[in-house]
Every structure is written in C-alpha cells, then in structure tokens.
TrEMBL record:
Sequence ranges assigned to domain Histidine-specific methyltransferase SAM-dependent in this UniProt record: 20-318
Record keyword Cytoplasm present: no
Organism superkingdom: Bacteria
Pfam families membership: Methyltransf_33
Cross-referenced SUPFAM superfamilies: S-adenosyl-L-methionine-dependent methyltransferases
Keywords: ATP-binding, Methyltransferase, Nucleotide-binding, Transferase
Entry keyword annotation includes Transferase: yes
Protein name: ABC transporter ATP-binding protein
GO molecular function terms attached to this record: ATP binding; methyltransferase activity
Biological process per Gene Ontology, one example term: methylation
Length: 322
C-alpha cells in the first residue's frame, strides 16, 4: 500500500457503521440499505464486470463522451487543477481527462475499499509518472478532508462520473452536492456524469443482465453481511429484481425474499414475508431542467454540458458560485 495512502476511518469503525446501518435497514418499513455497501473487494470486482456488459450502456456511453470531448473539458478546467474523484473505483475514466490537463497539481481518488482502489492505481502511476496521486479511503457521503499536494493547486475540481449521483434520493443528492460545494471552495467546480431519462426497455436490462452479474453483485451485499457482521442470510432464499419506478424517475434494485424466513444479526431477529424486498439501490434518471434546478439549489451554476448522440447520458460542468 502506498505510503501516501490515507485511511480516514479504521476498519473497526467501518465495521461498526456497517453493522448499525444494517440493523437500521432491516428494522425499516420498507427494508432499505445503502448502495455504498455493495463495494467491498468482491463487489468492486463484480461492478467492474458489470461495466463491460453489453446491456450496461452508462459506462461505454460516458467513455465515448470523454474520449470525444476530454481535451475540451481539460481546457475548461484549466491548469494546476487538483482533481478529486469520489467513488473512484478502478480509476478507468479519469485518464481521459488527465492526459489533457496542463500541469495538474494532484489526483485524489476516494473509495471505501482502499485495497481495491490502490490495487488499480498501478497503470495510472505508469501512465502519469509526474502526477502526484493521493489515494484516500473514505465514505464521501460523510465529512472528509483532503490531503495537501506538493504543488499548490489553483482550483479544486470534483470529477464525479458514472451517474453515482442517481443513487441518492433528491434530498440526499442536494446534501451531497452542498458538501462537494464546500470541498471545492471558491472558484472550484464539479464535472458531473448523469444518466438521462430514456425508455424502460433500455433501462431494465442494464440492471438485470442476461449473465446474472448484476444479480451476483446485488446478492453479494448479503454475503458481505454474513462475512463481516456474522449475519445468517440464506442467499438461496433471495432473488434479484430490477424495477422501473416511472413516478419517481428511477430504477430500483431489490433483493426479494422467496419464502417466509427469519434472519439473525447481532442478537436481533428480522422476519421476512414471501415477496418482501430489501431495497438496495435507487438509480435516478434526470432531465436537463431538473439538473439546472439542482445546480442552482446547491451553490453551482451550470456552464457546459456534453452529451452522446442519443441523448442518453450527460457530463455537466458546474462552477461554484458565491
């Protein structure tokens, strides 16, 4: 592990937060967990496979936008930028920006699973040997601080691709964006990837692929609770389901109980009826007017957008306003 890698929370602290969140989730009506718990080492590898599936359009669509417009984006970001990527995962998209940046001050990838993040930084370090890379293990939905690069940055820019914002409820999204506004500070900006609304026949297969990789990714949440928290989920008693909620403008991922059953965790018992679901993820799909309103509500001004030819996906450049 690189000497400059920072872990803002200890493994014991992370386990306790995971445990308390799972107890709260299983006590709820409906039962609902946070998608951030998908991303242990196993889940992170499964998500990398999802991104390569033919049904999963967001990754390849966003990559095409970055390939076509990355140089222009870099010019807009300007020189000596400190680029911060919350939820960086395998850091596979950021090179399409980094290779065009002029004298970048640093790249700060942030991920809950430090081991997975660091294991994937080798190619980036080889491709950009002069770039200071400062990995941080943190939950970006909670308060965090950034490292100080050797080269003083002229501005901070949060690179937030992958439509991750869609995983949050509208109020949670506003809270997160206000947090990012404080992080970038005066003169900072956000380069935000967002998935746009489109027909359900395109959306549902992207979250319920024919090979079952997304199902394995979803079910791994329960396996992780068994591994790390000592829960006793019977994985075979749950199935994966993806639903388009047209009224809310979002895909929902569920883990559905196949039968009446009880699950035990930390001395507590949680009962499931047949067909009762744990909601494990929201993936909101946006319209351009909604995005403009969201920017204005959270301390940003929308300056530029880049989209694919079908209008399926958008990269948005929001500048912090005083």
């Amino acid at each position: 592990m690189p000497a400059n890698a920072q872990r803002l929370n200890s493994p014991a602290d992370e386990r306790e937060v995971f445990l308390q969140d799972m107890l709260t989730a299983l006590s709820g009506r409906p039962k609902q967990t946070s998608p951030k718990y998908f991303y242990d080492e196993v889940g992170s590898r499964l998500f990398d496979r999802i991104c390569e599936l033919p049904e999963y359009y967001p990754t390849r669509t966003e990559r095409r936008i970055l390939e076509q417009h990355g140089a222009e984006m870099a010019r807009v970001l300007g020189p000596r930028v400190m680029l911060v990527e919350p939820g960086s995962g395998s850091s596979t998209k950021v090179p399409l920006i980094l290779k065009h940046l002029r004298e970048p001050a640093a790249y700060v990838p942030m991920e809950i699973c430090l081991e997975h993040m660091v294991a994937n930084l080798g190619p980036l370090e080889a491709a950009f040997p002069q770039l200071e890379i400062l990995p941080v293990a943190a939950d970006f939905t909670r308060p965090f601080s950034l490292p100080t690069p050797r080269l003083r940055a002229r501005r901070r820019v949060v690179f937030f691709p992958g439509s991750t914002l869609g995983n949050f409820t509208p109020e949670e999204a506003r809270q997160l964006l206000r947090t990012l506004r404080r992080v970038v500070g005066h003169g900072g900006a956000v380069l935000l990837g967002v998935d746009l609304q489109k027909p359900s026949e395109v959306l549902i297969p992207a979250y319920d692929d024919a090979q079952g990789v997304t199902a394995a990714f979803n079910l791994n949440l329960l396996e992780r609770a068994n591994r790390e928290l000592g829960a006793d989920f019977n994985i075979g008693n749950f199935s994966h389901r993806a639903v388009w909620n047209a009224d809310a403008g979002r895909i929902e991922m569920h883990l559905v109980s196949r039968c009446p059953q009880a699950v035990h965790l930390a001395g507590e018992t949680f009962h499931f009826a047949t067909d009762e679901a744990i909601i494990t993820e929201y993936s909101h799909k946006y319209t351009q007017p909604a995005l403009q309103s969201l920017a204005a509500e959270t301390g940003f001004a929308l300056h530029r957008t880049w989209e694919d030819e079908k209008g399926w996906f958008s990269l948005q450049y929001w500048v912090a306003v005083d």
